[in-house]
Amino acid sequence: MKRLILMRHAKSDWSVGTPDHARPLNDRGRRSAEALGDWLRAEDVLPDQVLCSSAARTRETLDLLHLGELPTRFEDRLYLAGPSALLKSLQAATGTTVLMLAHNPGICDFANAVVARGPNHPRFADYPTGATLVADFDIDEWTDARLGKARSHAFTIPRELV
Length: 162
Known about the structure:
It is a single chain. The protein is an alpha/beta fold. The protein contains 4 helices and 6 strands; from the N terminus they run E-H-E-H-E-H-E-H-E-E. The chain has helices spanning 27-42, 56-65, 83-91, 106-114; strands at 2-8, 49-53, 72-75, 97-102, 132-137, 151-156. Strands 3-2-4-1-5-6 form a 6-stranded mixed beta sheet, sandwiched between helices. It is globular, with a radius of gyration of 14 Å.
């Protein structure tokens, strides 16, 4: 079995006037990221590899999860990526439980496409900032990951945690 933790970055700060790729988190986003890390630990869903967009807000979200030292790939192709690029990146993963941090609209489309049936949650369809899906694949290698083949294990949004 392989497990995917699919997380959209936490709330970013639009007031700073930086280019999109360099935009940091706002205060609410920082609190949310820490709460998401607490939730992952409470659910005993901890990654052994991270695939993260190279954008500042995904990197900051990852740091604030406080997951410790993990093999991490910061990938430019995950910045504003669509479902096919996200799947391709996942298929190159080597961990057993992989955390993927990326952006909407692609991560929302990917979340909805990767599971056979989405979780019964009113916010799953639009995947707000910080939305996190835990999905399981009955595969031995990530190269065998396919859309529509994962089972939803858990889903949360920061508003439920902070």
